[in-house]
Hints:
The chain is an all-beta fold. 3% of the residues lie in helices and 30% in strands.
Amino acid sequence: MVLNQPGNFSSPYYPAYYPPRSHCTWTLKVPAPFQVKVVFRVFLLQDPQNRVCKDYVEVNNKMICGNRPMLVQLSGGNEMTIKFHSDTAESDRGFFATFEAYDASKPCPDEFACVIGHCIGKDLVCDGWNDCGDNSDEINCDCKEDQFQCGTGLCKSNFWKCDGVNDCGDNSDEANCQCDSEEMKCANGKCVPEEQKCNLVDECGDGTDEKDCKSGSHSVPCTTYTYKCKNDLCIQKKNPECDGTKDCADGSDEQNCSCGSRPYKHSRIVGGVDAEVGEWPWQVSLHVKGYGNTCGASVISDRWLVSAAHCFQNTAKIKYSDPTMWTAYLGLHRQLELNDHVMQKSIKQIIVNENYNPQTFNNDIALLELSSPVTFSSVIQPICLPDATHNFPVGKSIWVTGWGKLREDGPEAKVLQKAELRIIKRQICNSLLSSVVTSRMICAGFLSGGIDACQGDSGGPMSSVEKNGRVFLAGIVSWGDGCARRNKPGVYTKASKFRQWIAQHSGI
């Protein structure tokens, strides 16, 4: 296919999965002396196997495959050939691309030209964030007063120093740190949470945190950080529940594990985009009569949902604590689009945590009992509840989902949204946010902003995908200063702190 006018093109059937044995060729032309600029805004192809691309896009005689962020390709002349190939094996979502004429002498009028072809505002240059994607906007910068210089020469926000995450790339932001009382200091100077010690993972990077540890499956004295089996014996191994390995002598760590699975097979996830049908089967949309989607919730059994307490606080106009005001939609993907897969349930009772503080949002959790049991399906499944000792470490990627506002003071989403965030050190969040982040909360986001939960997402799940693919409820969307602002991460109720409370009131 020859395209002479700037526009869009995509893999076959995008956004649906591309078919096997596809072979497509596009010849893109622009008037000389302009060159061709192609931006792959979505790029989700099968991962390479043994470093060989089975499904690929060929640009400038180079094969590209796998999952890529926004990808820019430039031609050497006024013509470019793009080829797409898929084999007979597994497929994926494919790609969506735009192309335009490109003036190599003036690539970005009134803006900064990134090396890879992006154009960004000049105010984003040397601001400490990798806005280009290749760090070209952060090279040869003089660090500002609120920044420090990495060993790589990059300038980063002081808030990223000693936060437990290698932001510089050479770990220089984590060297020579004064560790907090809840942390241990590694031999290389890095600080890691004390609870990560002896969890069979080298968080230090030099093995310090895994030295002198007893075998994970042997019984050890019970402490706040040890997992307790049903026979009342404790083991050192962190997060042993439902990981596919029998660690407790009585096998109790592998009981009650019919949760956290996703029957549908899904492509890889990109933050802040539409979810796929059945991708987050525990996600619930809670509607208030006359107001539509108001909060989210998570399925934890065939009769119980978990949500945020602040969703059920009465106002002068609406009695949100009244169960008859609410309707739960399970298996929903697009708002107002009901089908045979969607279950609509009324609420029998709402149990708000008795210690919830509406001023501080501490203990922001509530249980909802359905009027009748729901039948599990490929799009309705319970999420796993974490044990009180389950560790969700700083820097771990988690996923937040909901139909809340797409931006602060913006419209609400019609299709379920998903966003990838990372857990941020609580002490860092306390220095950034207007209210106190307590030990019963978990902080997540990106200090660079841009991705976050927002109004209407409240009560929804913060999902953590563990190594074996099973998904646990790490948190519940609670509060934040605005939505997706820089240096303003979101705050979530820490689900592991309420495991006993949930069991006490629901029997789960």
